[in-house]
Design brief:
Strand order of the largest sheet: 1-2
Order of helices and strands: HHHHHEEHHHHHH
Radius of gyration: 19 Å
Number of strands: 2
Distance between the termini: 17 Å
Shape: globular
Structural class: mainly alpha
Helix content: 55-70%
Largest sheet: 2 strands, antiparallel
Number of domains: 2
Strand content: under 5%
Length: 284
């Protein structure tokens, strides 16, 4: 979809249709189920609510392209349920965890993914509980440290460029594009990226800049894309584009992730196609 394909149309329209149908078919639509609306596959024990968030976001983008088709009607049913699942399993702190239940536990990465899914659904015309969004954004804000970076979770002091960029992108998804929280986050990212360039070991590839480079690049691209100064994204993207194109394998894939080549390739393509502005959720 980021490259201009739509369900049933374009060079990869058939593959896209099958992928979207797979997500719909794996959405729990039994209203009596404790996991009503949960998008999951019993063979997948890894992604859990993180996967649910990405699946909901993907379905929302697909629905916005084909709302009046038969597939669009199936997507509408699945999306209503998927959104309800997110809203119903928000925890007491305003965040979410890896299981589709109301839990005391919470963490920022899942919360970020689910808030973006809700933004995608809202853009596609679905009614979202404003209290859920407000509590989630408050959770994200409270996860910020004094230095401007964002924690992995409230109560867990670990922070990173990836988590900070993801938090900024999520605040953007909630309509917050400026202010102290966002600007101090950007300032921290700028300092960290500058420090990397001064680190000879990092520049030589002897020390990785991130344990999750594809995740970092995915959210960093979104955060910088919404930066008030468009030149910030352009400068960063020029370097990243050269890096990505230079590391693509002959078969078209990217590697470098213990989550596999499909994940690495999907994240890389989403970054490269971001400036095309074809996905509704990534519009400026």
């Amino acid at each position: 979809m980021a490259a201009g394909n739509t369900p049933g149309r374009g060079p990869y329209g058939a593959q896209l249709s099958r992928a979207i149908d797979y997500l719909v078919e794996h959405t729990e639509l039994d209203t009596n189920s404790e996991t009503y609306g949960y998008v999951h596959d019993q063979r997948d024990g890894l992604s859990r609510t993180h996967g649910h968030g990405f699946a909901t976001l993907a379905m929302a983008q697909a629905f916005s392209l084909t709302p009046d088709s038969a597939r669009g009607r199936r997507l509408q049913t699945a999306l209503h349920a998927a959104v309800a699942c997110i809203e119903n399993c928000q925890g007491s702190e305003g965040g979410w965890e890896y299981e589709p239940k109301r839990l005391v536990r919470h963490e920022g990465s899942v919360t970020i993914c689910l808030v973006q899914a809700l933004r995608g659904a809202k853009d596609a015309g679905f009614v979202i509980d404003s209290k859920v969004i407000a509590r989630a954004l408050d959770y994200v804000r409270r996860s910020q440290k004094e230095d401007g970076s964002f924690r992995y979770a409230i109560g867990n002091d670990r922070s990173s460029v990836a988590l900070t960029a993801a938090a900024i992108a999520t605040l953007n998804a909630g309509g917050e594009y400026s202010g102290r929280v966002v600007l101090s986050g950007f300032d921290w990212i700028e300092r960290e990226l500058t420090q990397r360039k001064l680190d000879s070991a990092w520049m030589a590839g002897e020390r990785p800049g991130s344990h999750f480079p594809h995740y970092e690049r995915f959210y960093l691209s979104q955060a910088l894309w919404q930066h008030a100064d468009a030149s910030v994204f352009q400068t960063w993207f020029g370097d990243e584009q050269r890096e990505l194109l230079g590391t693509q394998h002959d078969d078209g894939a990217w590697a470098g992730s213990h989550y596999g080549g499909v994940y690495a390739t999907s994240m890389s393509v989403l970054v490269l196609t971001l400036p095309d502005g074809l996905l509704p959720v990534y519009l400026r």
